[in-house]
Amino acid sequence: MTTLLVGPFNRVEGDLEIRLEVEDGQVAAAYANSPLFRGFERMMVGKGPLDALTITPRICGICSISQSMAAAAALADLAGVQPAPEGAKVAALLHMIENVSDHMAHFNLFFMPDYARAGYASADWHGQVLDRFTAGQGSALRRAIEARADLLHVVGMLGGKWPHTLAIQPGGVTRTPTARDLIRIGATLQAFRRYLEAETFGGKLEDFAALDSIESLEAWSGGDAALFLRVAVATGTGAMGKGSGRYMSFGAYPLPDGRVFDAGTWDNGTETSVDFEAIQEDISHAWLLGDAAHPTRGETIPDEMMREEAYSWCKAPRLAGRTFETGALARQIIVGHPLARALAAEGGVRARVVGRLLELALTQIEMERLLRSIRPEERFMDQVPLPSDGTGVGVVEAARGALGHWISVEDGAINNYQIIAPTTWNFSPRDTAGTAGPVEAALVGAPVSEGEDTPLSVQHIVRSFDPCMVCTVH
Amino acid sequence: MNILWLQSAGCGGCTMSLLCAEDPNVLDLLEGAGLNLLWHPSLSEATGAEVRRMLDAILAGEQPLDILCVEGSILRGPNGTGRYHMLAGTGRPMMEWVRDLAGIASHVVAVGTCAAYGGMSSAGENLTDAVGLQYDGGHAGGVFPATWRSNSGLPVVNVAGCPTHPDWVTETLMMIKAGALNENALDGLARPRFYADTLVHHACTKNEFYEYKASAEHLCEMGCMMEHLGCVGTQAVGDCNIRGWNGANSCTRAGYPCINCTAPEFEEPGHGFTETPKFAGIPVGLPTDMPKAWFMALASLSKAATPKRLAENAVSDRVTVPPTLRKPKP
User: Fold this and answer.
1) Per residue in B241-262, pLDDT tens?
2) On chain B, which terminus has fewer CB atoms closer than 10 Å, C or N?
3) Hey, what domains does chain B have and what are their CATH numbers?
């Protein structure tokens, strides 16, 4: 058996190190280490609860609005109110824009460039990938960066800037859009649709969103989506990195009439609701002190000695003692999208990437629908007085999956704040029972060629999860 | 010139902001300026052992390094070891890597307020002992002492902002490439003066409200946010309202206050971010360079002279009283 240390692991958000035990040409065991400790939960103790709206977005530069949304939702829950309905719509639109931006950045900038590597140079598709997806160079990357910057004008207009807006509040949003603003946003969304249809899908979004089986998916022939599908099969990488078949979503985009994508869990064919009380964060293999706890009772005390048996700053969240995978694929499986359901059992690299592509198409359609429903003559923000004592929970879906904030306030100040980010679920270390986290389990069996020190298969699998390590180690 | 970009303890938001550069996009811009990314955590192909070999080559002097960009604060904890952030795969704290590489690079650029001064990463009790490259909050001397100079002779260039504006980064890099960034081009906190010589207040769309002290009482109202809502745009450096963000926008244009994110210690204002501390009903913080007595006198005069349009719109979430139209000449 040989041990490989993979890091620095780039084209993931934040710092990641993976330790691999390799035996007989494949990964026998993997250990995911988040080598950075940040301590955001501790920063907030003693501060006024509204300060969470300024501080928590800065946990993450790529899912900043998700953190805003969770914090605002936790404060609204603390106050026992719902945001003004039109404000909720604008907040959801901002959140959709961020999630879509993240999905397309992942596909174009982070994930696809691995297929442009010299190791694939003999493949007949390599020239096309080289042209489109060479890291930092390819034509698809340049176009994606421009389309993304244009799309984020919507966040500029409604939220001032991206990342780190303070526009999203428990009572709604700080900027009341005019009828003209909404028309302008519509134009930006149409330009983004044109980009997606011309470059990513090579076809109508509605047609991609209507795919309902693996056969229909494999027959898709347009755009970079088809290029990926071809390469995933040709390299065999699409089938790698199979997960446990357990998926979880906290439900995305709360609107006055419910969430656009519902919450739930899926365990190899069995659907149930999320039992939030059954969440525990295990810290047996994290450099943290204390006991496994529900986030309402969780603590964040770093182990300065960085004890031997631990190997990460990431806690290990478990739902009723079990690991769950979270993200776009999970969301769409739980919503019941037929293609996502068809991919649930496959559950590897291709399934995760297609989950995101599917959401790109679906979310664009939802954004257009949501925009049409916004009524500029209404109020967009209610004033929300916060109680000086109490608790609140805010759960949302970031691009990478389930995100929760749990706040406790005493005498007008935060006395505990706990966050579980999506990648905390997906990249958790082992728990007390020794059960590996989702990415650790998915890496087992990944092929490693003779002499490879940074195995390509491992890179494809890890990046298929689209990890956000800065959120993980908040 | 080549650039090595490292992400230390931060949120990665300054890179995300950089990707929002427009006209041209960031890849075209850097290429056009003759700036080549030796390695960037979000953009480069190389991972793992390939990166370690490149870092070793720089340390060994085999690979020249022109510009070292560091994003995120440097964690010195626990107990001065820096082990709260080990650079993945290397078994060494980021603090040590930055020390070694900065000694080799011609120029060192701190991208964002965390790298410049510690920023949000150092908020609260600063459990991780986070610090900026050459500043500890507002005090000169961070990982590097106040007198430290890179091989170019410049101190660490602090492209502060949370996040920092994409153009602030790209223009700083292009100025370095063009040899146009000397010590006179930096302000007293080592920020490029091309954006630090202006205030966020300049070109703020709420300026007419400010002139008449017509104040918003709640977020989402149109009035000036200085009196009640914690806005320090009259004290904060930045050309946010001149240049605009993500299109032509800014924090104040979106209806929330400037929190002075380009400044050291913005993360600990000593009060809520959206509250204005007051003494006897008067805001404690005055506009930069404004004598207190004159400010008080002008404020009371202008408040008495506030037109009805501004008084009403200030506490409304939209324009309820439009400007009066001049009657045509008879």
Assistant:
1) 999 999 999 999 999 999 999 9
2) C
3) 2-195 (3.40.50.700), 198-315 (4.10.480.10)
